[in-house]
Structure formats: C-alpha cells, structure tokens
C-alpha cells in the first residue's frame, strides 16, 4: 500500500464497479484497496485474477473460501480501510449502505440509480466539479444525464440555452444482463411525461429549461438521444461541431457510421477495454441548425460514460486537484480518452 495515494474501495463489482476499479487502478494519485462481491461468480474470478483484494458480506465469507477464494475481510472491514468508497451496488440498494459509511467516517460516491437526495451534490466533471471539492458525499449522475450535461453545459456557456427537448431511446439491458428486456417491443418508459432525465439534469444545472421522453428498445449496445435545443444567440451548425469537437469528452462520429452497433465495432477496432466508449458519441453529420434551433443525434455508452466522471469525483472530494480541466485531462490521459476522428 502506497501511503501517498488515496485509498479507494469499490462496493458492488458489477457493470459499473468493475470499470471504476480498473480506471482508478490506472491513476497515480489513488489506488484500489479492495472490491466487494456478494457471490463467487465469474466477476469475482476476474477480480481475483486482476489481483484486487476481495471483501464479502460477513455471512458469505465461508462460501467464497469453500470455492477457493482468498477473502480479505468483510465489507465493513473494507470500508474501514478506505478513504473513500465508490458505491456501485444496484440502484436503490446503495442508500442502505449510507449508515455504514457515516459510522466509519468514510467519504462516499453513489451512482445515478440512487435518488438525488442521497447526497447534497450531483456531479458532472465539466459542469460542477468545484461544488464537489472536499465534499463527503456525492452522486455521479446516470449515464443519460451525464451524456446530456456534457453537451448542454458547453452550449449554455457559449450560446446560452433557451430550452432543451430530448427523446431518449434507451437500451433494454446491458450485454451481460439476462433478466432485462424487452426483446420485441418499444416500451414507453414511463408513459407519464417527462421522464426523469430532464429533471435530473436540473440537479446539476437548475436554470436549464429541459424536458425529456424515454422509450426502451430491444438493444443492449447504447442509448440514443434525439436532441432539439433552442439557443439564445445565433450560431451555425459548423460552430456547434467545432465546439463539441473541442470538448474533452465528446467524440464526433463520422466515417460512414450511422448506427450504435457500428460505434461498438469501432470501439473494438480501437482496442478499447470491453469496447468502452467513454465519450459522448455525437453523429457529426446530424448536427444542424434550422430556424434558430439546433438538432443532433448522440449515442451514449451506458456501461462506460460515467467511469471517468467517478475518477474526477474522487479527485475533487479528496481535494487532489482544484481545477476540473486538469483532472479531466489527467483522467483522460490515463484511460486513453481523447483520440479524435
Ligand atoms: P450491476 O447489477 O451490474 O452491479 C451491481 C453489483 O453489486 C452486482 O455485482 C451485485 O452482485 C452487487 N451487489 C448487490 N447488492 C450488494 C450489496 N448489498 N453490497 C455489495 N454489492 C452488492 O449494476 P450496475 O449496472 O453496475 O449499476 C450500479 C449503479 O450504477 C446503479 O445505481 C445504476 O443505476 C448505475 N448506473 C448503471 C449504468 C448501466 O447502464 N449499467 C449506467 C450508469 C449508472
């Protein structure tokens, strides 16, 4: 253990937790002191192969040991050993861990599946990093909200945003998820409008006029956003393309790509771990301005876009870096984010 590095624990090692663990392990100012697993499944096996210390609920330690695992201790032991816990348990489960983090005086980050009330600060690296400096509890907003903040924030800074209308075609489940659906339907999610995504953006940028609708579709690759944004000052489609291309976590997608499946294939060709696309994928040729309104499509890789935001949130909360752009640059460099088409 390197005493100069911030000690990070990952509570819940699933889709998000395993990616946050790998991203934290790449940083020179933080280290993974352990991850928690509730069952000795294939993810526990890969965690052991990567050399992460595995912690388990006290009443499950014996079943892990019977399966040949070395267990470092209970989840309580892991929390005690950490400076900060990244809670990546399923939505609405993380809230039940809050009392433990409070008891042990450990800082904690929750994910977007938790209610906004779980922490005083909802977080996005570009839009409100400064609010999280030194904070004890932060929620990194969901994949869709992160994707929306990354485009709305720079547009609002440069041109002023009058209003945002977005329709989100949501993936039905993650690729490894065998319990979600639909397999043959478009499901209004929810029927009653707006969906929670627009209000969730307001937890970070309260002044933005935004409403959203969402539809669940039978795909596991990515979410797709159809955006219509009215800006306060005039600009051209070219201006917006240049603005987006200048942002650290937006990738302009071109080269004949017109589908989420091709973006995932592109990620594979780039040699990305787990074919992750951590950046917003804005379809360059879709960006258009008509009668003062901006339109575009963007695809959001739900499994990975929030991962660099978790790393930045740790850096802010532990006061390792005061300047958000420096943290973003450091995280991006370590993960290999930033190659532009
Ligand atoms: P997941 O189901 O893939 O992983 C959760 C892990 O936590 C599983 O390994 C599960 O066994 C474990 N777990 C369950 N109860 C636990 C407990 N009490 N203590 C420790 N571990 C426990 O879930 P996920 O998709 O990684 O989602 C985690 C959070 O991230 C949720 O809030 C979710 O809304 C949010 N999120 C998910 C996505 C996505 O698309 N998957 C995107 C952004 C944010």
Automatic annotation (TrEMBL):
Annotated InterPro entries: DapB_N, GlycerAld/Erythrose_P_DH, GlycerAld_3-P_DH_AS, GlycerAld_3-P_DH_cat, GlycerAld_3-P_DH_NAD(P)-bd, Glyceraldehyde-3-P_DH_2_arc, NAD(P)-bd_dom_sf
Give any single GO term for biological process: glycolytic process
**Recorded GO MF terms:** 4-hydroxy-tetrahydrodipicolinate reductase; glyceraldehyde-3-phosphate dehydrogenase (NAD+) (phosphorylating) activity; glyceraldehyde-3-phosphate dehydrogenase (NADP+) (phosphorylating) activity; NAD binding; NADP binding
Tell me which residues make up the Glyceraldehyde 3-phosphate dehydrogenase NAD(P) binding domain: 6-143
Subcellular location(s): the record lists: Cytoplasm
Quote the catalytic residue positions. 143
The residues that hold D-glyceraldehyde 3-phosphate are: 142-144, 197-198
The pathway noted for it is: Carbohydrate degradation; glycolysis; pyruvate from D-glyceraldehyde 3-phosphate: step 1/5
Enzyme class comes to oxidoreductase
A Pfam family annotated for this chain is DapB_N
Major localization class: cytoplasm
Q: What is its EC number?
A: 1.2.1.59
* Annotated keywords: Cytoplasm, Glycolysis, NAD, NADP, Oxidoreductase
Q: Which domain of life is it from?
A: Archaea
GO cellular component annotations, sorted alphabetically?
cytoplasm
Q: Which reaction(s) does its UniProt entry say it catalyses?
A: D-glyceraldehyde 3-phosphate + phosphate + NADP(+) = (2R)-3-phospho-glyceroyl phosphate + NADPH + H(+); D-glyceraldehyde 3-phosphate + phosphate + NAD(+) = (2R)-3-phospho-glyceroyl phosphate + NADH + H(+)
Positions with a binding annotation for NAD(+): 15-16, 113, 171, 302
> Could you describe the subunit structure of this protein?
Homotetramer.
For this chain, the family text in UniProt reads:
Belongs to the glyceraldehyde-3-phosphate dehydrogenase family.
Name used for this protein in its record: Glyceraldehyde-3-phosphate dehydrogenase
């Amino acid at each position: 253990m390197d005493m100069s590095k911030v000690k990070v624990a990952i509570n819940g090692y699933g889709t998000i937790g395993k990616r946050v663990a790998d991203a934290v392990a790449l940083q020179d100012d933080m280290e993974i002191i352990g991850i928690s697993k509730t069952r000795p499944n294939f993810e526990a096996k890969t965690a052991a192969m990567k050399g992460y210390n595995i912690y388990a609920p006290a009443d499950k330690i014996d079943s892990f040991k019977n399966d040949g695992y070395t267990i470092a201790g209970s989840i309580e032991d892991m929390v005690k050993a950490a400076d900060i816990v990244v809670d990546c348990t399923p939505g609405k489960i993380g809230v039940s861990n809050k009392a433990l983090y409070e008891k042990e005086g450990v800082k904690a980050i929750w994910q977007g599946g938790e209610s906004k009330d779980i922490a005083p600060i909802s977080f996005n690296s570009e839009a409100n990093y400064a609010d999280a400096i030194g904070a004890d509890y932060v929620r990194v907003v969901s994949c869709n909200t992160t994707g929306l903040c990354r485009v709305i924030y720079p547009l609002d800074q440069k041109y002023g945003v009058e209003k945002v209308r977005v329709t989100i075609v949501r993936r039905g489940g993650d690729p490894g998820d065998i319990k979600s659906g639909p397999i043959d339907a478009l499901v209004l999610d929810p029927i009653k409008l707006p969906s929670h995504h627009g209000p969730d953006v307001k937890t970070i940028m309260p002044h933005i006029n935004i409403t959203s609708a969402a539809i669940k579709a039978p795909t596991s690759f990515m979410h797709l956003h159809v955006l219509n944004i009215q800006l306060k000052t005039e600009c051209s489609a070219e201006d917006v393309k240049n603005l987006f291309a200048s942002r650290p976590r937006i990738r302009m997608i071109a080269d004949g790509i017109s589908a989420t499946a091709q973006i995932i294939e592109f990620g594979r060709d780039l040699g990305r771990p787990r074919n992750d696309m951590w950046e917003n994928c804005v379809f360059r040729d879709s960006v258009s301005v008509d009668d003062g309104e901006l339109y575009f499509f963007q695809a959001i890789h739900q499994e990975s876009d929030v991962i660099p935001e978790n790393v930045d949130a740790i850096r802010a909360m532990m006061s390792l870096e005061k300047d958000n752009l420096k943290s973003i640059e450091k995280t991006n460099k370590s993960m290999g984010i930033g190659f532009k088409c």
